[in-house]
Write a structure and sequence with these properties.
Length: about 525
């Protein structure tokens, strides 16, 4: 499982790093004014759809159903089921895209009430409509990725999302030298988002992948209605962090530039969250489904334990690093062109509060597959809705007093509320099977992360305020690389991880990743 996890995580890391480059260029191109707020509000809507569909969420229902059907009735029945899912999802999303396009003014009025009465709303509606083709293409992309993951073929699905960011970076690279008007630049970028979905679909289409789903047909018979009844709650639950950000953006839309500050801060949260979340959905769900189906308690315990170790080992140091290095990271990535120093300060403050919720988001990603693999998509959904309610209530109160930072703190509180609700439900229903190795390693992982965070804090302020950008870049890179190295050494020294075990997990005889 670890080898597959690392394959998916590497692809996600590459995509997120390209995403940082993309957002740094967007900040330089659009700044944080009305044009940027409109574009980012529309883009955030598309990002929710991306997470809802293409980043592992649909796997929660799709993979267990396909694996059970293949085991009981054979390859032909599983292929026919895949064809029905692919055809139905594709046809449905084309129809939904048309309806959403017509209703977009009403949708964005609800999502960004602070834009009403300003040109910002018209700009956001235009940008969102140009992005809508992505929604239609995301349907078949999602289904194909799910079936490839179910077969243990992770490499193609892990790296295909890179095309989305590559397309946007290419468009921004063409716009920046010409010093294009911000409104025109936003128009071009929105159209590029719509085309990027087609590039992903073309990358996944091959004779081998097409053979997974045939014959292709759209139907809403009892089987498909039952499938979607399980899939939709799981998809909504898997996109909990994005729904929390949408809720925050609704409250923030009344404050100029607050939508942009929250968006850019959240982009830094999505790097570790995406690495863990996508890998959990792509790798852990099929692993747990097989283990639970076979009745092997040891296999279930091992899968859940390794997932929790990996999630904690990635999320905790990332949380501490983002809190300690919030301002230098934001300045380095985004303070260019139209993005001012005051924007960096506000974004960094929001980032600190959002980072406090990162462990909760990751905890949900690590525990939800235990429900999904058992066919229960409602428990994670209810936990997500509870967290959303907490976030909205607190955002109304704290946002009025503390602005974007208060809204960010509300989002973190909502994440913890959802995580604790899910843990209580899982413990009551089936208990989480954590093996002895995990009970021994987890406290040591926490200790290693805390020591690393303390050392990072001691090295803050090394770069003078007036230092050249290149110097700040080098010093920040040394801090981050040094923190990673110290953390790795501490894991080895404390006995939380072994280089030999890690190498064996990566090179060992796991299922294919291609």
């Amino acid at each position: 499982m670890i080898r597959s996890f690392l394959t998916v995580s590497t692809g996600t890391l590459a995509s997120r790093l390209l995403g940082f480059a993309r957002d740094s260029l967007i900040a330089a191109l659009l700044g944080t004014g009305a044009v940027a707020d409109a574009f980012l509000a529309a883009f955030q809507l598309v990002n929710v759809v991306r997470r809802l569909l293409s980043e592992g969420a649909l796997n929660a229902a799709l993979i267990p159903a396909w694996l059970r059907l293949r085991e009981r009735e054979g390859e032909a029945a599983a292929s026919a089921f895949a064809g029905r899912v692919l055809g139905t999802v594709s046809a449905t999303l084309v129809a939904v895209s048309l309806v959403v396009g017509l209703a977009m003014p009403l949708i964005l009025t609800a999502l960004a009430p602070g834009f009403v009465g300003h040109d910002t709303l018209d700009r956001a509606v235009r940008d969102a409509r140009l992005m809508l083709p992505y929604l239609a293409f995301a349907g078949p992309v999602t289904v194909l990725m799910g079936f490839l993951n179910a077969q243990g073929r992770f490499a193609l699905t892990a790296f295909s999302p890179l095309l989305f960011n590559i397309a946007l970076i290419a468009a921004i690279g063409a716009l920046l030298p010409s010093h294009a008007d911000a409104a025109f630049a936003a128009f071009v970028l929105a159209a590029t988002v719509g085309a990027a979905g087609l590039l992903q679909l073309l990358m996944l289409l091959s004779r081998r992948s097409a053979a997974l789903a045939k014959p292709l047909r759209a139907t809403l018979n009892g089987e498909m209605r039952g499938f979607f009844a399980k899939a939709i709650p799981g998809m909504i639950a898997s996109s909990g962090p994005q729904w929390l950000m949408v809720a925050g953006a609704i409250i923030a839309s009344a404050t100029p530039s607050a939508v942009s500050w929250l968006y850019f801060a959240n982009r830094l949260i999505e790097l570790p969250l995406g690495i863990v979340g996508v890998a959990m959905g792509a790798v852990l769900v099929p692993e747990l489904t097989r283990a639970i189906g076979s009745g092997d308690r040891n296999a279930v315990a091992q899968a859940e334990s390794r997932a929790l170790e990996l999630a904690t080992g990635l999320a905790l140091p990332a949380t501490l690093g983002l809190i300690v290095l919030a301002e230098p990271i934001v300045r380095l990535l985004f303070e260019h062109g139209a993005f001012a120093a005051s924007d960096s300060a506000a974004t960094a403050q929001a980032l600190v509060w959002l980072a406090l919720g990162l462990p909760a988001h990751v905890l949900i990603k690590a525990t939800s597959p235990a429900f999904f693999a058992r066919g229960d998509t409602m428990a994670p959904l209810l936990a997500t809705l509870k967290g959303l309610l907490v976030a909205v209530v607190l955002a109304v109160l704290l946002g009025h007093v503390f602005g974007a930072a208060g809204i960010a703190a509300s989002i973190a509180c909502g994440a913890w509320s959802g995580a604790l609700a899910l843990l209580r439900r899982g413990t009551a229903e089936f208990g989480f099977a954590i093996d002895a190795a995990a009970r021994r390693r987890l406290p040591r992982i926490v200790l290693a992360a805390l020591i690393m965070g303390g050392l990072l804090w001691l090295t803050t302020g090394l770069a003078p305020e007036a230092a050249h950008g290149l110097i700040r870049f080098v010093l920040l890179g040394v801090q981050i690389a040094g923190g990673i190295a110290v953390y790795a050494v501490l894991l080895q020294f404390l006995g939380a991880a072994s280089w030999r075990e890690a190498a064996g997990a990566i090179t060992g005889g796991e299922r294919g990743t291609g």
